[in-house]
User: Fold Sulfotransferase from Alligator sinensis.
Amino acid sequence: MATQFFTYKGIPFPCLEYSPETLDYVDRQFQVQDDDIFNITYPKSGTNWMLEILSLIRCDGDPSWVRSVLNLRRAPWIETNRGLQNALRYPPPRLLSSHLPIQLFPRSFQSSQAKVIYTLRSPKDVLVSLYHFSQALHLYKDPGPMDAFLQDFLSGNLHYGSWFDHVAGWLGLRGQKNFFYITYEELQQDLQGSVVRICHFLGKKLSEEQISSVVKNASFQTMRENQMSNGSQIPDEYMDHQKGQFLRKGVSGDWKNLLSEEQSHRITTMSCERLHGLGIDFPWD
Ligand code: A3P
Assistant:
C-alpha cells in the first residue's frame, strides 16, 4: 500500500496525514508562543530519542509520566492534519515536534522567544535508517534499489525534501539564544553530558538522580523494551511491523554495511559542497 504525494513549495509530502491547507496554515497563521519548545529534526535523525529525553526532562525524570509515541498530545507534529489540531488544543507550555525545513516553519517563530532543539545525524546513517524505515512505513515511498534512493536523497526528492537544505537552513540560526543544536553522535557518545547541556539550554534544574533517570529511561535498550516508545503500537494502517522496526539498531556507522564506497563518496562530496560554508566540524566520516 503506497501513499500518494503532493508537492508544496517544491517539497514532497504524503497525502495521507498532510495537506497544502494545513501546511499553509502552519506557515502563515500558526501562533508560536514564547514558552513553546520545539523538537526539530530531519526524519530518522533521532527525533523520538530527543522526544523521550525532553519528555523525561519535563517531568523531572519520572518515566511514569512519559507517554506513548501515539499520544499526539505529548508533542504533536504541527504540520500533520491531526497534529495541528492537537497542537492548537495543547495547554501551555507546549512541547511540539516538526520535521519542517526552516522556510516552511511558522513565520511567527521569528518574533517569538520559543526554544528550538535541532538534532542532526550523519547523512549516511540518516539515509540508511530511512531506507530501512521506508520499507515498513506506508507514509514513505517504497525505496527501491539503493542507487535510485540515494539519487532521490541527493536531489531532495523525498518526504521533507533535501537533508542538506534542512541542515543548512536550521543551522543558520546557530548563535541565536533560543536555538540549540546537537548531533545524534554526541547523544551516543555522552548521553548524560548531553542531557545536562539540554537542561541548561531549557533553564531546567534537575538533581543528579533525576538526570540519571533521564539517561536510564532514554537508553536504546529501555526505549526498545518500552511499548510506549518502541513504535509497536503504531497501527498496521501506517506501518508493516514485519518489515521494519521503529528502534532498529541505534548505532552510528551502520551505513558501512549498506553503502558502496562510490555511494558514500557522493554523499561526502555533496556535504562538503553544501555545508562547508557553515564552518562546523561534524562528528562523522
Ligand atoms: P536506526 O534506524 O539507525 O536504528 P527518528 O526517531 O528520527 O525516526 O530516528 C530513528 C533512529 O533513531 C533509528 O535509527 C533508531 O534506532 C534511533 N534511535 C531511537 N532511539 C534511540 C536511542 N535511545 N538510542 C540510540 N538510537 C535511537
In short: The pocket of adenosine-3'-5'-diphosphate is lined by residues 41, 43-49, 125, 129, 132, 218-220, 223, 247-250, 254 (CB under 6 Å).
